[in-house]
Amino acid sequence: MKTIDCRGQACPAPVIATKKALEESAAGVCVLVDDGAPRENVGRFARNRGYQVTETAQGDGWSLLLSSSGTTAMAEPGGQTGGLTGERVLLVTSDQLGEGPEELGQLLMKNFLFTLLETPQQPDRILLLNSGVLLATAGAETVEALKRLEERGTEIFACGVCLDYFKKKDQLAAGRVTNMFSTAENLLAAALVIKL
Question: pLDDT per residue over 6-40, tens digit each?
């Protein structure tokens, strides 16, 4: 059985590594993780996909043995759309995710965008408004994720008025500049709009 060492890795890296390992070896895998959120997240991820999880304390961390339970794995969240057809649009209106400390919000947004690269479905379009445009400007840690999403077919549009306001129009590093009319059209034509 394959063993992967995810100790010392921050969320969502242990779950992403576990997902990849299980795709390579559906029979199971042993995952070494730190206590706390990594242990809980990897265990929950595996259980939600029908794996049996055996946890063993190991030094200052945990060994999680993920084995096939012989039952059908549950659908991944977001994997089923209830017959939804049409485009999915992600509306990002801030460079932070959630409310709270700025540094935490920016870290969560970065983690979210990089995690999108690991999900089975990705948005058809990402619309960046207000300080959300800063995610696509030179020097932002999120530019790499946005460029990779573009390579996979996600269209990314940044509000021109917003870029002008932040004096960043000449620093757009991912996506294209758009206007409010086009933004409104995209939102109204989408089958699903998710606002962050």
Answer: 899 887 788 888 888 888 887 789 999 988 878 88
* pTM of the shown model: 0.66
**Distance between CA 191 and CA 117 in Å, rounded?**
21
Return the number of other C-beta atoms located less than 10 Å from residue 134's C-beta.
22
Question: Which CA distances in Å does 130 have to 37, 82, 118, 159, 194?
Answer: 32, 32, 26, 8, 16
Kindly give the pairing relationship between strand 61-68 and strand 28-34: antiparallel
What pLDDT digit, counting tens, does each position of 44-56 carry?
A: 888 878 888 899 8
